[in-house]
Amino acid sequence: MPVESTTPARPDAPRLVRAPDPGEEPASGELFEVCDLSVYYGSFRAVRDVNLRIPERCITAFIGPSGCGKTTILRCFNRMNDLVETARVEGRILYHGVDLYDPAVNPVEVRRRIGMVFQKPNPFPKSIYDNVAYGPKVAGLKGDMDEMVERSLRRAALWEEVKDRLKASAMGLSGGQQQRLCIARALAVDPEVVLMDEPCSALDPIATGRIEDLMEEIKTSYTIIIVTHNMQQAARVSDQCAFFTTEVNETSDTRTGILVEFDGTEKMFSTPSDERTENYVTGRFG
Amino acid sequence: MPGGPGGELDPRARSHFSAELDQLRLQVEVMAVRVAQALDRMGRVLATGDEELAARAVAADDEVDAMLVSLTERSYDLIRREAPVASDLRFLVSVLRVLEELERIADLSLRVVKHAGEVPRLMSNEPMFRTLASMAEMAQNLYRTALDAWSAQDLGAARALADQSRIMDGHYATLLDHILALDGPGAAPLAVSAVLVGRALERIADHTVIVGERLRYLLTGDPAYLAAEVR
Question: In the CATH hierarchy, which fold is given to the domain comprising B17-230?
Fold first, then answer.
């Protein structure tokens, strides 16, 4: 998907997408570079010292036990943690070489380029059409809205099921359809990245299969990062996989999340390098 | 609850599955011991031509076949129920392969045993028979190494197997030289028996090497060892 340049929020703001210098080598395919990332909630350090490079147009899964910080990290990628008052982020996340946490970067623009789908489908209590059209309208995108809604619903593999009832309430859709609607809504603003936080945990196996097929289809155009508790889902859909776990802090009874291993999914599920990964994927550590 | 006391990994998770894998490993070992006994009978039949022992060897093979079926079913069942990954998956797919190899080795030992009636004739050509006897001993030694390697999950022993098996190739070449030198009346049936027995012994060594290579795959995860059977 071509990434158009954006109008910065302030005249001095760095552009989110760096214009390539003349004669510069084409991008290496790495979209994000996470450097020494730590996240705090108040004085509690939820996750520490994460270093990752996420390539574009593939699916990256974050796995690990509850409380290991994978959702916290995911929410850093589009600055959703900004909305949590006590949350504080240290370190850097470079997106096209630009630090997302540079004070001059507009978080609203970040979230337009880096969309999110949540655990529980959360359509607006509006029509199917309005759910999809909402983002583009707010973002002030120009163009044929009908065509844009259809394109987004098609990309989310929902068009055939809803094309005759676009004005019906989104709340009347099944859970799986609602989740695909949320994906259509995320795609409508033409993002480059879609973050998914356990997008199938509230869905039955058939609806889950549809979402997974959809992820496979759209990854040629989008970069997807997914948090999942479902090991088999991570093994099925992702190209690479990051395993996080927790360590107990010596001075208090709290736990901090750490990244243990990040590698190709096949490697992670066949011959992981770290014993902790092996123990987790084989289920010896629940 | 992530982790156990002190943040260490909690070994209780899925302990039932671990116990079943351990049990399966032991049962494969029991089957492997049965096959070792079959090779031992094969050696004695080849040395003596004892037809009564040969008949017992043939009857004993049913037990090995039954173990193959039941352990294969058990492995399929564990795969279906537990969706194993990483070392657990390598273990189960390796067990499935090793079971087939063990059954094959037992069958090949019967090919030798079924020539019990031909043993006096084979003995009549002493240099050729000595080669066959060396091959039988070699096959049993290789197999014993494989069995020990599997029992101890010993990578070093598994590695040694591949090297030792080359000696068998040398023996087989010598045997063929002896056979090609045969002439006179009775040469043809003698040659046929020697080829069939020699070939079975050589194949036992090959299948034993695959057991070792599978163990190397299981222990290292290196897919290079999966190619052993096509070399």
Answer: Methane Monooxygenase Hydroxylase; Chain G, domain 1 (1.20.58)
